[in-house]
Amino acid sequence: MTSVDTDRTITLTVNGVPREATVPVRRLLSDALRHDLGLTGTHVGCEHGVCGACTVLVDGDPVRSCLLLAVQVDGHQVTTVEGLARDDHQGGQVLHPVQEAFRECHALQCGFCTPGFLTTIAAGLEKRDNAAELTEDEVDDMVGGNLCRCTGYANIKKAVHHANAAMRDGAR
Amino acid sequence: MTTKLFGEPVRRREDARLIVGKGRYLDDIGHQALAAAFVRSPHAHARITDIDVEPALDVEGLIAIYTYDDLTGPMAEPLPVLIPHPQLTEPRTNYPLARDVVRHVGEAVVMVIATDRYVAEDAAERILVSYEELPVVVGVDAAVEAKAAVHDDVPDNVAARHRQETGDVEPVLAASPHTLSFTQYIERSASMPMEGKGVHAKWDADDRSLRVYTSTQASTSVRAAVAAKLDLSLDRVEVIAPDVGGGFGVKIVHPWPEELLIPMAAIALQAEVKWAEDRREHFISSAHERQQRQDITVGYDDEGRITALDVHVLHDNGAYTPYGIIVPIITATQLVGPYVIPVYRVQVDSVYTNTVIVTPYRGAGRPQACYAMERTMDRIADELGLDRAVVRERNLIQPDQFPYDHQLTFQDGRPVIYDSGDYPGLVDKLKALVGWDEASRLRDDAAARGKHLGIGMALYVEGTGPGPYEGGHVQVLGSGKVLVSTGLTSQGQGHETAFAQIVASELGVPIEDVEVTTGDTRRFGYAVGTFASRAAVMSGNAIALAARGVREKALRIAADVLEVDVADLEIDEGLVQVKGVPGSSIPLRTVAVLSNPLRYAFDEAAKQATQFTTHDDSKPPVAEGDAPGLEHRDYYSPLRSTFASGAHAAIVEIDPATWEIEIVKYAVVHDCGNVVNPMIVEGQVQGGVAQGVGGALYERMVYDSDGQLTNASYMDFLMPYSSEVPDVVIDHQTTPSPLNPLGIKGAGEAGVIPGTAAIASAIEDAVGRRITSMPISPTELYDLVRNPDSEKTAVAAGRAGTGVMA
């Protein structure tokens, strides 16, 4: 068979946990996360990098996992939606403020695009000084690259403000 | 007293799993499953002359290849016409895999099964299908021209001529003080849920049973279809809709070819098989909607009151008609909107084209209907020099005219009789909300900034909650947990929350104790499906009735053991309580244990219940007409649909340098009767408006003359991002429905319906040129404005010399 079928073993850190996977070199990161590592929270909406549903964080930056090959993240840190919440060390989880905000603001309906929004917005909010006033331009930057067919986006934008306020007030 | 949760903005319970990545959508199921991929037609119309699978056979990991020749029995027959109609004289459906002829790009020809999707696609691309191309029909005008036929035996390309009339329209038109006639077009868009379709099937050889997961809006009907097509007894098939990533109509169609082929392969191969649709497949092989040509003639008097309306619609139904003429019927019957139309005649010719099938997309024929009626109102106002709101007000059905019988027959075969509403109230609220009377000042302000500003409004009435029925089951367990199920499915509308609110309120239990399951045939076998804004109306009421049944039984049992009259009892926070006598009570969970005379003391609840045990040797342990268990199943079957209503207004600003159209204000007044959860209803409206804006300004299916869909990707099909969706201001009005116990009307589709009409009106107002085709892009608007032959509105002529558009 051709070289596309050559398998490679990669090691990466996913949601803080070292993982190893043997994948064909052509395997998309989205498919490797979902099917090889069993992290199905990352969703595939278009497979051509437009909708953003598959967005994960690679070394803290949002990337479209359908536009990366799994072998490209060998040695890197990947955060998926499953890794946004933190362990509360009492057998439970502390949700990321953006996750709380999405629930509070009804920022999701079917929930399929939601993981991509959550990872993108979480990265955006973590990179800014939450005490500084959050401008609509910043919100548009965090929300504007992902497609949602259910909500009409208003409540997603509201959730960004809500999460920023929570982070300013000390959540995370 | 328990807080009544009905009507409260309760936070959604489904979110807990969805925000942490623990939703379970179709492709999240069955990691070990074999994968299917399809070879689909690259031609819009062609005869298959050869299928050569030989080159694929040495692909490592290939399991099986199926073509039409491998289909047997009912699978070798055309797919069902789900909803036959006497006026659908030429119904045609495709085969699960194409037989001889393909009639649109994307039609499935070969199914490949392999160890994973990558391998399946490797094999699929090696399969060589030879075609002899045939003439192609694209667009309604080409269809009626009939130079070529989509189906050989339908030479005029007309599948159906749907006609309704409420009187003799022609003499009334002839006698009308004024008449006007015009033609307008509306383009195709599509539901486009973020999750495409998908099917997973597993045959259990030991149990001789089939379990199918499918991303559907109608799991009970898929079950029946699978059983019939695969020659299985219904009891051997279970179908489950898992978390579904949006539907908006496209997933109500069933059975999709893949919903039959994947189970067929699972049985044949004795293996788990899965297919998850990719985005291109969704564009070219699922369904679209909306394309129509509308020829309208209206008669009216000097005041702008309509005397007669005559409408002829050409409706593009694509290559096949599996869903019958539901969309044409809805356009025909919902066109009349909130208005008194003394005489109405409508004919919708549903025509074949070599394009993807047309089945309901959120709104389902209503956006087109609203576009026809509301643009007619705009024309009358322009001709008479009247305010567009005034013309509408003069034609409205008044609050004292309900129930209002339009003398038409709706999609469910029942009369179009509006149950309740307050349409003048909607218009008053809308005018206040959008600032209708300040528009000319805004126009002047915008002109001073070099912008063209316009305002438009559109009203609609939406038949929601059609029958025939939905059911609900409520069961209280000895643990105190309350299990609720309904057969109808969910695609993000928050049914788990809304139905739990209804049960908590009806039964008097904490909402935390309530668990809701939808769309799982193992739990509830009878259902119709989620479409036509019917879930809250139909399943909501059925579940309320089931909860009332449980309550009645609980009170009867509790009255017996507490030795009081039923009328003296109430249920609050899961406790059956003698009114006004604190301490004299019994937990509902104990009543649940008592309801079953067989009580092995497995748990504390059963032990506690023994203290209440009564023995009456004169009766059998289960009394005649009674049943063990604290549960009740009930159905809601309405006499006819309920009719929700609303009014939208848009203010647009157009930049004459770029002809970019910006919606600077979008106002919604919405009336869906009593509201179960206002947060969810507002969410539905917001999302609907975004789709309405998409349909008005951005989304279209661009078929070339060869029948190739040239924008079959998210790169080229312009679905709105947040930057394209305006802020929406919403006001509510509540006229409860007298038809159902909860007084509710549907809300799911409302937001999308008037978008195209209101935005067309606003753009026309801004530029003073007649808008006759939607959606409209900046380029098209530019071409329209610079074309000296474009028709100017009378209002624009009146404004001559006063603004940039003179």
Automatic annotation (TrEMBL), chain A:
Ranges of residues in domain 2Fe-2S ferredoxin-type: 8-84
PROSITE patterns tied to this protein: 2FE2S_FER_1, 2FE2S_FER_2
Gene3D superfamilies: 3.10.20.30, [2Fe-2S]-binding domain
Family matches, as InterPro entries: 2Fe-2S-bd (IPR002888), 2Fe-2S-bd_dom_sf (IPR036884), 2Fe-2S_ferredoxin-like_sf (IPR036010), 2Fe-2S_ferredoxin-type (IPR001041), 2Fe2S_fd_BS (IPR006058), Beta-grasp_dom_sf (IPR012675), Diverse_Oxidoreductases (IPR051452)
Molecular functions per Gene Ontology: 2 iron, 2 sulfur cluster binding; metal ion binding; oxidoreductase activity
Stated name of the protein: Carbon-monoxide dehydrogenase small subunit
Keyword Iron-sulfur part of the UniProt annotation: yes
UniProt keyword Metal-binding, yes or no: yes
Cited SUPFAM superfamilies: 2Fe-2S ferredoxin-like (SSF54292), CO dehydrogenase ISP C-domain like (SSF47741)
Keywords on record: 2Fe-2S, Iron, Iron-sulfur, Metal-binding, Oxidoreductase
The protein's annotated pathway: Alkaloid degradation; nicotine degradation
Automatic annotation (TrEMBL), chain B:
Gene Ontology MF annotations: iron ion binding; oxidoreductase activity
Superkingdom to which the source organism belongs: Bacteria
Domain Aldehyde oxidase/xanthine dehydrogenase a/b hammerhead: 20-135
The keyword tRNA processing is annotated on this UniProt entry: no
Signal peptide feature range: none
Keyword annotations of the record: Molybdenum, Oxidoreductase
Listed Gene3D superfamilies: Aldehyde oxidase/xanthine dehydrogenase, a/b hammerhead (3.90.1170.50), Aldehyde oxidase/xanthine dehydrogenase, molybdopterin binding domain (3.30.365.10)
Segments for region (Disordered): 611-630
Family annotation (InterPro entries): Ald_Oxase/Xan_DH_a/b, Ald_Oxase/Xan_DH_a/b_sf, Ald_Oxase/xanthine_DH-like, AldOxase/xan_DH_MoCoBD1, AldOxase/xan_DH_MoCoBD2, AldOxase/xan_DH_Mopterin-bd_sf
Protein name: CO or xanthine dehydrogenase, Mo-binding subunit
Organism, as annotated: Blastococcus tunisiensis
